[in-house]
Design a protein that fits this description.
The structure holds two protein chains of two kinds.
Chain A: E1 10-11, H1 26-29, E2 72-73, H2 92-97, E3 101-108, E4 118-122, H3 130-133, E5 144-147, E6 162-175, E7 181-188, H4 193-198, E8 210-211
Parallel strand pairs in A: 2-3, 5-7, 6-8
Antiparallel strand pairs in A: 1-8, 3-4, 3-6, 4-5, 6-7
Chain B: H1 8-23, E1 33-38, H2 42-46, E2 56-57, E3 63-70, E4 77-84, E5 87-88, E6 94-97, E7 108-115, E8 121-131, E9 136-145, H3 155-159, E10 166-167, E11 171-177, H4 182-192, E12 195-196, E13 199-200, E14 211-216, H5 227-236, H6 264-272, E15 275-283, H7 287-293, H8 302-317, E16 319-325, E17 346-347, H9 350-356, E18 361-362, H10 369-375, E19 379-381, H11 384-388, E20 397-400, H12 409-417, H13 424-427, H14 436-447, E21 454-460, H15 462-468, H16 472-495, E22 499-504, E23 508-509, E24 512-518, H17 522-530, H18 535-541, E25 544-545, E26 572-576, E27 582-583, H19 594-597, E28 623-624, E29 635-636, E30 640-646, E31 654-657, H20 658-670, E32 673-674
Parallel strand pairs in B: 2-9, 11-21, 11-22, 14-31, 15-16, 15-21, 16-20, 19-20
Antiparallel strand pairs in B: 1-3, 3-7, 4-5, 4-8, 6-7, 8-9, 10-32, 12-13, 14-30, 17-18, 22-30, 23-29, 24-25, 24-26, 27-28
Helix pairs in contact in B: 4-16, 5-7, 5-20, 14-16, 15-16
Classes of the chains: A mainly beta, B alpha/beta.
Chain lengths: ~220, ~675
Amino acid sequence: MPAARKIMLILAASFPALTAPTYAQADDATPTTNAVRRTTARPAITNARASVPVASATGNIAKIPPAPEGVTDVKFGEFFKPIGSRGLEHSDKLRALDGKRVRILGYMVKQSRPMPWTFLLSPVPVTLHETEYGFAEDMPATALHVFTPRNATPIVPFTPGLMLLTGTLSVGNREEPDGRVSTVRLTLDPPTPEQRAAMMPTARATQTISTNAVLR
Amino acid sequence: MPSLRQHAAQAVCVAGLAVSTLTVPTFVQAAPVISRLTPPSALFTFNDPNGPYTARFLPDQRFDLQITVKPDADQTITSAEFFVNGRKVNKPVALAPATASGLPSNTVVMTIRAYANDNPGVHTVFVRAKQSDGQHATARGNFEIVKMHNADLGKDDYDKGGNGGRRRAKNIIYLIGDGMGIAHRTAARLMLHGAAQGKANAPLAMDTFPFTGLVATHSLNSIVTDSSPGAACYANGNKSNNNQQGVFPDDTTDNFDNPRVELIGEYLWRKQGRTLGIVTTSDVFDATPGAFGTHTANRGAGTGIVDQYLDEAVAKGGLRVLMGGGRKWFLPQGTPGSARALNSDYVLPADLSSGWNVPAGEIDPQRDVIADFENSGFEYVYDTASLGEVGKKTDRLLGLFSFSNMNVAKDKIDKRRNPAAAGVVDDFGFPDQPMLDEMTAKALDVLSRNKRGFTLMVEAASIDKQAHNMDTERWILDTIEFDRAIAVCKKFAEKNGDTLVIVTADHECAGINIIGGSRVTNADLQTRAAGNTNGPLALRDQVVGIYEGAGFPFYPTANDGYPTTTDVDFKMLIGYAGNSDRYEDWLTNPLPLRDSQQPFNNVAPLSTYPTGPLNRDVAGGFGITGQVPGGSAVHTGSDIPVSAYGIGSSMFSGVMDNTDVFFKAMQAALGGTRIRPEALW
């Protein structure tokens, strides 16, 4: 693990490992119309309607420990009402959680121009190419601005995989220093003593959920 | 190919600079200096009066003249005069501080707005700036007005056949596959139709176009362009720096005050009343669509760019159709999801606004741009269903189908095949996004209601975006989606004979090529990719079939026109020459769904696509050292293909500069060409 990562998000030993990807590849979802064709005969196009060749999640059930007292679990899918013809509309749950401590699971967005003491958390893995495209991006509008004011390093190194974060939620549009407009923000809790202890190298092994322990 | 000639004077100029440095070691500036003359020219930069001429324009196409002048330390610049071929340009000269970093604080830019010249040929620009102590600085440059042959013939000449068999293109359709090089086309053809006994089983729609050439794509400041100048050259005929569209570079920090060049939509609307359509799968403020409707030195200034679509492109450029993603820029500040911000908005300097007779703009992030479009007579649609309901009388159409980029073809098709299942498009909140061919067909319906003709730009944006990601199957499927839009346009041109259809790209992306075919079944490949300790052996040496080992990969096609699956046995394999460090397992990269992990009831695919080429496909152990830094593949300087169909298509063969494409299209539009029967194959 790079040294820089010591000073930011840690891997929490208390969670069961969400291990190797077991999502179905396309063959699992499609009939066997993709027959091998290595003959010299000109083929007939089958035009068979197939199932969708997309990933579908299968496999083990992962248990997340109960949220600490005073912390509400929230999901990206609960932020907004279904999108209509215009903008987003906050859900009642999101409005109720404004200013409250919440816990959320998501993916850190890989950015080419990350902002100091900030990163983006998305419901799906996302790579942004701001240098190439500016804010023309393939990222769900629900993505969350996460603030790490106590982080020892301004730019949080990219950490792939699921990340379980706890902090204080704030709701409402705000123009950030990089020009991006945030809609929902999470200011991370400082690390617990246990999490600080877990930052010792021996505690960091192969677990695959990161949490928001931050070194002061 | 004259435009690729080397400037012999460049070497002389550099040598001279070296000598002067040696002989005048303590030179102190004793006179004002003009450090930049716009339009750019080899005459100014290299003292080379010969072609190729950097700046070229149509007869009467408007552009700005500008100088940057550095006065002596204690002096100011008081005035400037511009001369073209020795004749003074009698237009106002505006003076503004040159705010770019590194320049002395008293440096200024001096500009004449919206100059135009009717006379074909090369013209010399001479500029003289006066300093407060009476000293002068001078500079000389040049530009070319490209002759449009037979443009002076009237409509009757054409209608009555007194035109030597010429016809004009009333409609021009640019189809731009962003990042689409030759191999992208070949890969799409192989996946869609396959090949057997050495021959493709069927052509792509773009393969059926009768004329094909190669286009050199360099920008004003690099052999490798980005999408802004790569597309802007098709919209205005000129080179610009990377990140800039519809403008020349300048020495100010303002993104919207740069010297402008009139765009194809503005020119044809002003002179002939032709309308403009812009259709893309990206955010509509992105570089390629933006290059056809806006002028800015910063392709990222989304708030100002979408405002300019309405303020200028609709009012002064005939913009009647705008479709794609990017709704976030149209929502008033404060609305959840709005990206409108102070720092990406725009206000034009007074001399630009008055010189070009366009609104000055306003810092107004609170603006409701959708409502303003509607108030300007636009029908607004937001999904496939509402797009399908557009009426036969609609002549202005705004479609915003997602908050930023639209989802890629794979994700849209996946949802259509399994509507009941949660899909990627659901995670983005837009389950009912139209395909590019559906958007294109509707755009043609609406635009063809203008009897004077139209220009339509259709962009398949994510060919490039997914090539950057080195996500093979996604850019191939987007190329297939693009080809379906091309087929729609060809069909339109078959019915509407006065149409020119041009298929090209803005640049190649990722250095893509087809390196062979897999020697193993998909099941075998998945086993190898699931985990092994010797990736180069298991996923390269034992998998990559080269030469005859590649065979003829075959992908069955579903009724919807797309492959049933992209993970077939013995599949086609793609390599990347413009690659960053990455892992490869040859399999389609899955995109884990939100709902698979949010309820915490399933294993989500961790550390996988698209968090980056270094974080996905790792289990197979086949790491590939990149040839470029960073986390994604890059554009390359390779030539890209252009194919054309219809009126004027015969001009699109051979090797040409990307700016030539604009002038050939405009020759077809303004003067026409003799009809060659093969142009209408």
